[in-house]
Please model this.
Amino acid sequence: MARQSVVIRLAGESGEGVISSGDILTQAAARGGYWTQTFRTYPAEIRGGPCMYQVRMGQDRIYSHGKEVDLLVCFNQEAWDLHHDSLAADGVVLYDETSVAIPDEYRERARPVRMEQLAKEIGGSSRAKNMVAAGAVCGVIAFDTTPIEELVTVRYAHKAGVADANLAALQAGKDEAADLTGVMEITHAAEVEEDRVLMSGNQAIALGAVAAGLEYFAGYPITPASDILEWLSAKLPATGGITIQCEDEIASLASVIGASYAGAKAATATSGPGLSLMSELLGYAGMAEIPCVIIDAQRGGPSTGLPTKTEQSDLQHALYGGHGESPRVVIAPITVEDCFWATVDAFNYAERFQVPVIILTDQGLATRMEVITAPDLSKVEQWQRKTAKDVEGRAKRYELTDDGISPMGLPGEPNGQYVATGIEHDEWGHPAYTPEVHTVMQHKRWSKLDPLTNGAARHEYYGEAEPDIAVIGFGSTYGPVREGVDMARADGLSVGAFYPRVLGPFPVEKVREFTSKASRTIVPEINYTGQLARLVRGEVGISVDSRAKSDGLPFTAEDIYEMITEAAQ
Amino acid sequence: MSTTPAQRKPADYKSDLKPIWCPGCGDYGVLASLYRAFAELDLDPTNTVVVSGIGCSSRLPGFVTTYGVHTLHGRPLPVAMGVKLANPELNVVAVGGDGDGFAIGAGHFPHAARRNVDITYIVMDNEIYGLTKGQVSPTSLTDQKAPSTPWGNLETPLNTLGFAVASNASFVARGASFNTKALTELMVQAIEHKGFSFIDAMSPCVMFNNTQETWKELVTDVDPNHNSADRVAAFDLALRGGFKMGILYREVRPTLNEKYAALIERTPNSDVGAMLESFSAAKGAAIGKPTV
Model:
């Protein structure tokens, strides 16, 4: 019987064709009408070290990368050693016989594929290994290779010889495992009527920023956020915008603040180490009330930590990092699709509330490829900052208003001159340190965010709205939690998940309502100390069970299902 | 600059805030020179932004009627770059002290210079940390005794002009607070210069390092025969030290703004719709590096 979805894992040495095989299969699955999600692990070094590329494809929307591997492709012995434990009970193995030895008990469902040899025979080098591997995989899952053939033809339109060699390698791969053809047959994809796109979380953020009206982007290379800098460097000039690689993360955010002071919608992207360097400026932007967007693609910490692994350990830093108490908004997108919309929200919050807004993703979400429904661009709204242009007479930059939002004079506006400053200041922006001024200004800067806890922020619920077993998480864990909740509800359990998309300011009342009937509240998150659990306890005053883990890997749906089942006992 | 009837006067740039500087501070002379330079250039205050860091001298934007950004310690240059890149029409002047610019902020200086960001950077150099009450700075003399160097400064001072020339600053000059006429003229030329212009403005701290009388005796003008278009000659002059006043180096080359404008000009227009289309699953979205 054909399967609804399959999990394919390719593994080998970095630089051997594992990544390109995975890319080919992912593109082909997307083009062939399947929902797809990928998951990659790779070493921090450019050459050498084990890497892995997992593609999960299926007829229904995919929310997580999958746990048990249906089809494992081993490029080398280490790949077998590291990954055979993940094989499903009926999982199939394809391997290059010249470099991999498979124990006898697996021989039934394992087939040698002469990746290296065939690639050399057909293409004259080992470069076509990726195509041989892709062909073999397509055979086993009975996937019509037309999309791959089309992609190859388009890509090598001007290099007929290369295209032919690739197509021959693809066919050769299919022939290699001919007797396993269709043993992992995947259900044919339904006709796709809507517009779908295939992109990573980083790309969705970059695109969302352009949709939101981004005019200035500054960044400093850092894994796993560099894609955003690179993509915008290529694309932003086409819209008249500027992208610049700065000398460090401090200069990146400083120049973003300068650009925003001059009226531009501006953003930077980084990972934990960069966010640490930006902390002082983050406080400045909050104090001087300068809109800006900071994307933090979290990675394993502390310090240099695990640059290529995932973690959600910057939550407290994003919320509170920096000296003094400086207001900011923290928003955590939950899927690749939401990366787009959260970025649009982030720019609008920044402009509306004149604050820095941090978008928290993580390595898993930032780098995975996912097929998503194409964002409807007609639904994108752009909030325009309150400036001095409508003010009669001289504008008071930090005027005390009912909603805490003051007119921000933009250079060029004739009545708006002021000095933005990190020193405590009066309504005119003049330095003032009296007890009265500091009291009233701190209140102004924080209370202007109240709309976000009074309905302006969108949050995500899944499953029951007032469940017996409540699950609270943030960001990238949404996918596996959603699938885990489904599994538990299929068992008849009363379960629901709440994902605050805006974590700062924290939606205390929403959590209180959501957990009002819960006998247990569990909080899965990828960090050591249970930062979200601590936040919920501290802010809401309820008891929760932390299910934090810090192995650098995303949760699987099965992990979540086990947690829920355990909590139900 | 021809004078028109509507020409602004130095007083037009003077804000209501009184400077917080000590009586006799060199920064008064720098501020007075800046008012005069702005007036001579008749800069529109609404189109002018003065950016500063942290320190005594960095309070300057508050005393000017233009737009201003009082940033963090050491960060005026990247903030000023952002302002200028976002709006090329603005006149952008960054100011600060020697500690701000050459200790905590030194990492930004060579990059602003080599990028040729079209801004003017005036460092009020008093060879001391004044606001924190007299510790040594990167430009303090060797053996100088100060609260943090009670046995004398063990370090060699930074050669700021040499640093600027080596960093590819396209305008490098030195002036002094006690010669406002010459300093005003340097500021006028620096602001008119298209590109990154740096003025080391010697500005004595009367409270913690009163060098005014010594400096007045030491300063001499740059030799009139010095070729300011010759970068090697400029570096030579900078390394020889002494207190040479005037323009050491001046070069016209494209500014960062001009380079971005040219890049944008030659990039075919696109929009978010077309960018979204490039990710189309049905058409075979590209994975990997974006194409240009």
Observations:
- Chain B touches chain A through 59 residues (CB under 8 Å).
